[in-house]
Amino acid sequence: MVNIAIFVSGSGSNCENIIRYFETNEQVNIALVISNRVDAYALKRAKNLNVPSLVLPKVEFNNKEKVLKLMADYHIDFVVLAGFLLMIPNWFITAYQYRMINLHPALLPKFGGIGMYGHHVHEAVRNANETETGMTIHWVSNICDGGKIIEQFRTPITPEDTPEDIAAKEHILEMEHFPQVIEMVLKEEGLIK
Which of 104, 122, 138, 177 is catalytic? Predict the structure, then answer.
């Protein structure tokens, strides 16, 4: 069985979707949800679904010994970033090389990098007069949003769409595709059959 940790900073709709997707899968265990914010609603979602969760503020998240011990204690094999807003330290990227993926709410390499998260992304898409947006799932590397792309999904947008409309269209893609891509990656990496 593969043990997954989900890292989140906010509401946790993707986190809940992933937990529910895998709850009857005998090869995948969502072993832990970690947030850097004590007020992240994702923590309540995890609790309601009986998944262990904890808060690691930025200062603690940068404590290599503490974090790696925590990962070992929960036997974490794979990490999913689902709306996690802290930069991942290089030592953690090394520890989970090609065992950590991120969801980005745009079609990378456009609209990626430091400061490009949440509403900022959708405003940038709107301001650039794009005709489509989408989501990118990529491996985490030491370049912000620069890891190798695994999958992208697209949706058309219109000139009348507000950043909120764009966010809603992109979020539909997340709900539909993110868990399936996680499962595909786990199979491709030989972690499950």
Answer: 104
Q: How many CA atoms lie within 13 A of 43 on its CB side?
A: 12
Biggest CA–CA distance in the chain, Å, is 50
User: What is the 3-state composition of the chain as percent helix, strand, coil, each rounded to the nearest 5?
Assistant: 40, 20, 40
Rounded CA separation 29/160 (Å): 42
Half-sphere exposure of 110 (CA within 13 A, CB side): 17
Q: Is 177 a catalytic site residue?
A: no
3-state secondary structure of 83: coil
pLDDT in tens, 88-146: 999 999 999 999 999 999 999 999 999 999 999 999 999 999 999 999 999 999 999 99
Residue of 159, 134, 137, 158 lying closest to 147 (CA atoms): 137
